[in-house]
Amino acid sequence: MKAIVVTEQAAGTAGMKLMEQPEPSAAINDVVVRVHASGFVGTELAWPSTWADRLNRDRTPTIPGHELAGVVTALGYGTTGLEIGQRVFGLTDWYRNGTLAEYVAVEARNLAPLPGDVDFVVAASLPISGLTAWQGLFQHGRLRPGQSIIAHGAAGAVGSMVTQLAREAGAYVIGTGRAVDRQKSLGFGAQEFINLENDTLEDVGDVDLVFDLIGGEIGKRSARLVKNGGMLVSIVGPSEARPAHGLAVDFVVESDRAQLGEIVQRVRDGRLRTNIGAVSTLDDAVDSFNRTKRIKGKPIIRVRP
């Protein structure tokens, strides 16, 4: 099968190569999926799990990518809940070969059924962005109707999901980003927008929840805006400053079949819009990842037509 392979961490995306690799087999509780579309996060090549297994043993060469949409082609021993020929989408294990390939072996529990009216490219854009937003807002942030939230990076792949899900939950959403992101952020449902290049973040006043995708100085300033009993939720590691009278939590997104089902249903009925950037073929993926021009939205690889 064709797959994108990386062998050298220092080389970054420039070290990616399209190569022939053996097709994976299904271990116990696994399925093999024929990949139709795959998502990619540019920071993956800096993650320790890309280069080592859970026992810290080197696992290069490795295939990156952790989001997929495709069709089940094989079941491992003991696998239940899915069947051969079923359309699926989901988020694969961080420590195993990934989805920038024609086939991938995945634990069945990491996948959810994909309705026939949802395109594979759309589905592949949902797992990391959608699950991160869902878990940060509702599991860790405990967002409730009527609360206020700062959604950093509101025009990005994750931030736009945060904005939409928070608005649907009845929150008042203040989006942030660059000046050029204003209209896109408002289009995704932010009720206010703070230009982090020129506006004063502190002018928004206190909020119930900050969803931090940036960290650093912005993260520290954001912590001071959390109300008494509020929450700072981060996906960029532990916050350098904690709210004086609230809580701070950082988390790594996990796959969840029920949550994936909630997310894809919202796409189907129009409550949730995807934020897809460049769509490339597997043959063109290496060049796509190494473009110098900034591409907005989620990069997707269409592995099959």
Question: What would your notes on this structure say?
Answer:
Helix content is 20%, strand content 28%. The protein has 305 residues and is of the alpha/beta class. The strands form 3 sheets. Strands 3, 4, 5, 6, 7, 14 and 15 form a 7-stranded mixed sheet that branches. Helix 2 packs across helix 3 (157-168). The model has no long low-confidence stretch (mean pLDDT 94).
Question: How would you briefly describe this protein structure?
Answer:
20% of the residues lie in helices and 28% in strands. It is α/β, with parallel strands linked by helices and 305 residues long.
List the helices and strands and how they pair.
Blueprint: E1 2-5, E2 17-20, E3 30-39, E4 67-75, E5 87-91, E6 103-107, E7 111-113, H1 120-124, H2 127-140, E8 148-151, H3 157-168, E9 172-177, H4 182-187, E10 192-195, E11 207-212, H5 216-223, E12 226-234, E13 247-250, H6 257-268, E14 276-281, H7 285-289, E15 298-302
Parallel strand pairs: 8-9, 8-11, 9-10, 11-12, 12-13, 14-15
Antiparallel strand pairs: 1-2, 3-4, 3-6, 3-15, 4-5, 5-7
Keywords:
seven-stranded mixed beta sheet; 305 residues; six-stranded parallel beta sheet; globular; 15 strands; alpha/beta
Total number of helices: 7
Measured distance between first and last alpha carbons: 16 Å
Average pLDDT reading: 94
**Morphology:** globular
How much helix, percentage-wise, in residues? 10-25%
Strand content: 25-35%
Assembly state of the chains shown: single chain
Low-confidence stretches: none
Rg on CA atoms, Å = 19 Å
Please provide the count of β strands.
15
Instruction: Give a quick account of the main beta sheet: strands, pairing sense, barrel closure.
Output: 7 strands, mixed
Order of helices and strands: EEEEEEEHHEHEHEEHEEHEHE
Structural class: alpha/beta
